[in-house]
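Hi V.,

Quick status before I head out on leave. The structure for the redesign project is tokenized and pasted below; the design run finished overnight.
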């Protein structure tokens, strides 16, 4: 292990120790919570599941797919990404831009993990997601918040610079979506809720998360970030979250303008 890695490891340990002084909610890893605690509650035996934005790295493993007898539809803007997924991961693939896509309403659940920040039109993306699920089905979303400090830096830094920094400091992130251009368009809890309502989706569950790993590698920066986060919360409330998760349910019935069920 070189000196730089030892230095980073020491700073990460100090950051973790500092986090233990804060309420437990501030240390919940949003992505792990989404994968291991939230989503299993919404994926059932024999479901038709749309994996939106998974591309070459499907969200659902083949072993889980087989265990639950799932039908997995891969929806991604890149046909090449879809073609590089493990054989058997998808039962069907759709190469389409989510922002302009109109689905057939056949899914029991649509999963959109760490993808919304990469679309230039989140309103179109939510509309596309809503169109994939049947009445009674749900859209399950995990995304970073536009107001998170790392997201703001992402928007400011030139693409080449931030990619080199990201992959040098966090090599594992080169394997995920982190190398793709991010827009964070309307990517805040308040705006997601408004877009959900506009597309006849009801918020069934919401989780806000307050931790990310980006600033742990240098303890003084981590302390500054925590102070920044506290000030941001006073000004923005829930929109100051680092990441968030939503379960959006399409109702079994809709209500017309006169209040009657249709």
């Amino acid at each position: 292990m070189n000196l730089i890695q030892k230095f980073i490891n020491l700073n990460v340990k100090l950051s973790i120790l500092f986090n233990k002084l804060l309420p437990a909610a501030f240390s919940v890893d949003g992505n792990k919570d989404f994968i291991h605690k939230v989503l299993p509650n919404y994926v059932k035996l024999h479901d038709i599941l749309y994996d939106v934005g998974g591309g070459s790295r499907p969200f659902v493993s083949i072993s889980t797919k087989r265990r639950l007898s799932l039908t997995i539809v891969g929806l991604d803007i890149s046909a090449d990404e879809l073609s590089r997924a493990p054989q058997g991961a998808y039962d069907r693939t759709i190469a389409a831009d989510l922002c302009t896509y109109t689905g057939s309403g056949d899914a029991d659940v649509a999963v959109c993990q760490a993808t919304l920040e990469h679309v230039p039109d989140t309103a179109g993306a939510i509309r596309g997601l809503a169109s994939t699920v049947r009445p009674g089905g749900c859209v399950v979303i995990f995304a970073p918040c536009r107001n998170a400090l790392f997201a703001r830096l992402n928007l400011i830094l030139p693409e080449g610079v931030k990619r080199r920094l990201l992959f040098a400091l966090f090599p594992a992130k080169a394997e995920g979506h982190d190398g793709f251009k991010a827009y964070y368009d309307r990517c805040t809890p308040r705006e997601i809720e408004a877009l959900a309502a506009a597309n006849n989706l009801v918020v069934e569950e919401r989780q806000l998360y307050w931790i990310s790993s980006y600033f742990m590698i240098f303890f003084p920066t981590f302390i500054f970030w925590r102070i920044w986060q506290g000030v941001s919360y006073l000004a923005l409330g829930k929109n100051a979250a680092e990441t968030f998760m939503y379960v959006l349910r399409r109702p079994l019935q809709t209500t017309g303008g006169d209040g009657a069920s249709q």
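Above is the designed sequence. The mean pLDDT is 91.

G. will cover questions while I'm gone.

Best,
W.
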